[in-house]
Amino acid sequence: MVRSIRDERATDAINALAWDILTIRAPLHFITTDRPLLINAGQCGMLQLLSIPLSPTRLLFAYPAFWRGPDGPVIDGVEELRQNFAAFHDLMLLNEQPCRYVYASRSLDDNRIVKDKVVHLRTTVQQVLARCR
Amino acid sequence: MLEEPVAPKGTAFEPDLYGAPPATAWEHHDPNIIETEVLSPIDSATALVLKKLTCDLPILDAAERRSWAQFLVSLFHRHRDTILERDQHAPALARETLARMLAGYERAEVELSSSMRSMAST
Q: What domain range includes position B47?
């Protein structure tokens, strides 16, 4: 465990990514879990995307440095990806990382509207927790 | 689903999760050595970085980025389930390691006796 944590290759891989802070506005808020770190949005393969909620309104989003120029993303679709990541992070986190605890800054409901879609967050949390216990 | 307001501190706390008690009679290290020597320093450094990351204009220097990256790496390895799974395999791994060491020791002992016999005969 200690050797793995101190493995500089892993630290270097994360450090080499570009890091952005994505924010959302109330009433939306990020949830987090006892497995808060999401890698590649749950997909396998070498490290490309990494995200972790920092607070109810902020999310650290890391992606390949060559996707970003001095003034922001330089590859088509990156901005859209960032927006979707922020909008649907809760669902990705819940569905891709088996968790035992979910933390939210306010009560969860099933009426969250995200990008014109109704998100049944409370039901999703219930299903995920039932699956993992 | 059990829903209740909780303070972040101590949430999902698991006693002795990172405990590493001495496995042999000749080891005398602190059972909490992983917590005190490895995780606490990472977490302390990270707490300061988190404050910066959540401020309006987060700018990190190289050391702070590295601290945060190492904290993220630690998250891969410190979840309760990951540790319990690893702990389940530990006894078998210890037995295999001991058997390998003893086999090596016996081999070395045979080779030593053999070389001593040949030295005596010359």
A: 28-78
